[in-house]
Design brief:
20% strand; alpha+beta; 7-stranded mixed sheet
Amino acid sequence: MQQPPFITRPDLIADLARLGVAPGDIVMVHAACRAVGPVLGGADAIIAALREAVGAAGTLMAYLDWEAAWEDFKDAQGRIPDALRPHVLPFDPALTRAARQNGTLPEFLRTTPGARRSANPGASVAALGAEADWLTADHPMDYGYGPGTPLARLVAARGKVLMLGAPLDTMTLLHHAEHLAALPDKRVIRTEVPFATPGGMAWRMIEEFNTSEPCVPALPDNFIEQIVTAYLATGAGRQGKVGEADSVLVEAAEIVPFAITWMERVAGLG
């Protein structure tokens, strides 16, 4: 009998289990859906497989960000020009779409019934499952990758990060390590952001370490990829196929201290 041309949800569930995704896990997923192959049901089926793999007690999380191209026009103080301000769409956690550069899956997860979204625009995540409310609640507006954030909670809960065919340099959790590392003179950016409120648009200045490039010049441009590669080379983490995608699964509470030590050493501090 000829093999069906599609990858099915049970196929993905079996692959995820072999990789190490288990019932009760909190899993932050970065996915290149096309790399997974011709999945019957597309991104929705991938999410369904992930949900079944972690079970009712588990939780999925994905990094969202948002579309904010107007930030390119901010001045040296981070303020948006007056001429643009009336035309900028405000951030609304319930409505604002995920940044397209993060792929298909984050927006699909955000719009899955029951999903929750954190309130920090640039660092926002969506979560679905037993711990979704806890992961996304009270996301700090300033320094949204540091303590008290969904990333910090992922580490505290001994969650996992799944790179489902996604490039290693997209592992957002390592911006949390970047925040915690004792690196001198980190680049700080300030950006004026519009929020949707019951009374209309309200602007707020947000301060953050620069995550669009290494936060200190001593780190190489591809430092995240280098860290994950070095971590896997120690024998830590799990690697395997999910569908057709080369995939990686790591423990959040293990890779973060590894990354901190790596960054401090490369910066000449360790």
